[in-house]
UniProtKB/TrEMBL annotation:
EC assignment: 2.1.3.2
Keyword Transferase: yes
GO biological-process terms attached to the record: 'de novo' pyrimidine nucleobase biosynthetic process; 'de novo' UMP biosynthetic process; amino acid metabolic process
Catalytic function, reaction form: carbamoyl phosphate + L-aspartate = N-carbamoyl-L-aspartate + phosphate + H(+)
Protein name per UniProt: Aspartate carbamoyltransferase
Domain annotation Aspartate/ornithine carbamoyltransferase Asp/Orn-binding: ranges: 164-321
An annotated GO cellular component: cytosol
Recorded metabolic or biological pathway in which this protein acts: Pyrimidine metabolism; UMP biosynthesis via de novo pathway; (S)-dihydroorotate from bicarbonate: step 2/3
UniProt-listed InterPro entries: Asp/Orn_carbamoyltranf_P-bd, Asp/Orn_carbamoylTrfase, Asp/Orn_carbamoylTrfase_sf, Asp_carbamoyltransf, Asp_carbamoyltransf_Asp/Orn-bd
Entry keyword set: Pyrimidine biosynthesis, Transferase
Amino acid sequence: MHLQGQHLQGQHILSVEQFSLADINTLFTTAEKLELVAKGVVTTKILDGAILANLFFEASTRTRMSFHSAFARLGGDICDTTGFSFSSISKGESLADTAQVISEYADVIVMRHPEQGAVADFAQHATVPVINGGDGPGEHPTQALLDLYTITRHFNQTNQPVDGATIALSGDLKHGRTVHSLAKLLARYQQITFHFIAPDSLQMPPAIIDWLAAKGHRVHCFPRPEQGLPDADVIYCTRIQKERFNAEQLDATPDESQLFSINQTIINRYAKPSAIILHPLPRDSRDGAFDLSTDLDADPRLQIFTQAANGIPVRMALFVHCLGLQDLVGHDFAPA
Ligand code: CP
């Protein structure tokens, strides 16, 4: 399925592969129009009477709450369920039955599920648009959209084109669905140079590397941050996702989290002064070292909190387009 810029209405949002550059630009134009609504400066009732079903079967803070906040800021109502134990799936109900039932309760459904492909399976049985909030190690399309929104806004402000940019992705590139989706989304641009920084055991899946190379992008894999950070315009860090390791991987993979900890010393030594540093969050400090150190928090290159905030206007824009309301944006804005 390939979407056209103006025709997201009624579509499921399952993978970034659905989006053309025209779709992305259309969404981002709508997101920019909604920035003041996202910040609560102006109000709108564009989704008055609409209901979002927010179904999260895997841990989440940002995605679950920002989808909720985005829908509420647009005037809609939200019903949700979190975790299998509080859903009738724990009584053996199938995803197919759940999808058919909830389609009668809501106008749009957001779902996160620990199994790759489960959101797409669910969507086959839903009669309202389903948005993938993350399916195991598969994809996280709305995270990639907000990441790209953050990147393009920064590049626009500094008069840099995305075409020809060098993007460093660091950490657990094997299990990190955000980096899978972001790499595919960036591939819509021309001549991107990707620096994939990860130990061999956690490198980007070969299928994605081959797909990017076949599209004419340059791909370089590095085992250490100091090798992949120089020349990068964007440094995108991720945590090691041990919850996705099987027992064999847990035994076989040395604890390399310290080697992939990006901190002020490494950034000062190897990163360009103009680079921006992103992370989908959460940062993980459980092994004694953050994957992205808090000693960078005062560095203006660190844009992780702007990035997380951008989840609201981008997710608002997706709702508006999925529900076919884009032509109404701005018509009823009122001061808060
Ligand atoms: N970035 C992200 O998906 O965060 P959560 O897991 O908290 O939703």
